[in-house]
Amino acid sequence: MSDTEHNVVGGELQPCSKRPETGFLRDGHCRQLQRDPGRHEICAVMTQEFLEYSREQGNDLITPRPELGFPGLQSGDRWCICLPRWIEAREVGHAPPVVLEATSEGVLDELSVEELREHAAEPPEDSADHR
What is the rounded distance in angstroms from the CA atom of residue 129 to the CA atom of residue 111? Predict the structure, then answer.
């Protein structure tokens, strides 16, 4: 058996972001982990609309928190977000675009590939930045 983690489109899970470094383990990947109750498994491209929505829900991703090593996010940054928050944001029309190749296949227990494709991000021109 392989230890390779897969993404929602069946390939090897790609990094979401190294700058800023994201993921529950801060290793750049949106992994499915038993010890991550928040399920930080969706790699999303931040939009100002989503960042403001998230702050209104009590999760401020905009304000830097140097004491936690968190630089604060801006529109265009890629970040591993919680599966339940993405679903909630989608239901109210604020879901950020999803990077399919960097989103854990684990989310398929809650969402279909088709649902995710409807919100797929355009590939970045400088994708090497995120690897």
Answer: 28
